[in-house]
Amino acid sequence: MSDTGRQSFTDKATAAIKPDSEKSTTEHFGDKFKGKTDSAASTLQPESEKSTSQQVGDAFSSNSNENQPSLTQKAKNAMGLGGNTA
Known about the structure:
The two termini are 24 Å apart. The chain is globular and about 40 Å long. It has a domain at 7-13 and 30-42 and 50-86. The protein is mainly α. It has helices spanning 9-17, 25-44, 52-60, 71-78.
């Protein structure tokens, strides 16, 4: 379970699984906005205040803000499903 004020893991997984080619423009913008908002929340929330599940989720989604693609994005790219790395 994600921490309060953070994007749920289910929402992240759903957005990551659906191929970019099948997303509407609204979905693309929504995913980008939610991702940026969640990344900012990750940055602002001290590691010491994050639950264990949130720390794992942040590591999986690459919310360490080091401009590295997430594991999910790397997998999508490897399968030819990831149109962009943002």
